[in-house]
Amino acid sequence: MSDVSTNISLFKEIFGELAKFSSKVETLLSQHEKQVIAALKNGSASSSISSGGMKKRKKETDPNAPHRPPSSYFIFHKKMREELKKENPNLSIGEMSKLVGKSCCSQDGV
């Protein structure tokens, strides 16, 4: 009978240690899962997750890279602004942009 009681006490001891280890692993996993879920909610899936928290990576840009060509609206805006400035030199920039926007939207085919 002493072998059975020894085995039971050994089992309780091992099971207790396993339960402690298991709870520690669950805690660590839940902390990591919270960080991953927060990263996904913020849309920063490319950010790195470290033990110190989340750090967002900055996209490096080349200062010598060429600029993008102007869109068709900006080309249209530039021409219309020149015409409006000749007709109405007293218009402010905001008023001029409003008129250009109205004339762009009132064009046929748009």
How would you characterize the overall build of this protein?
It is a single chain. The relative contact order is 0.05. Strands 1-2 form a two-stranded antiparallel ribbon. It folds into two domains: 2-55; 72-105, no CATH class. It is mostly helical. Helix 2 crosses helix 3. It is built from three helices and two strands; from the N terminus they run H-E-E-H-H. The model has no long low-confidence stretch (mean pLDDT 76). 64% of the residues lie in helices and 5% in strands.
Largest sheet: 2 strands, antiparallel
Sheet with most strands: strand arrangement:
1-2
What number of structural domains do the residues give?
A: 2
First and last CA, distance: 93 Å
- Helix-residue proportion: 55-70%
Shape: rod-shaped
Low-confidence stretches: none
Q: Strand content of the residues, in percent?
A: 5-15%
Class by helix and strand content?
mainly alpha
Q: How many DSSP-defined strands?
A: 2
Number of helices: 3
Briefly, what is this?
This protein has 2 domains: 54 residues; 34 residues, no CATH class. Helix 2 packs across helix 3.
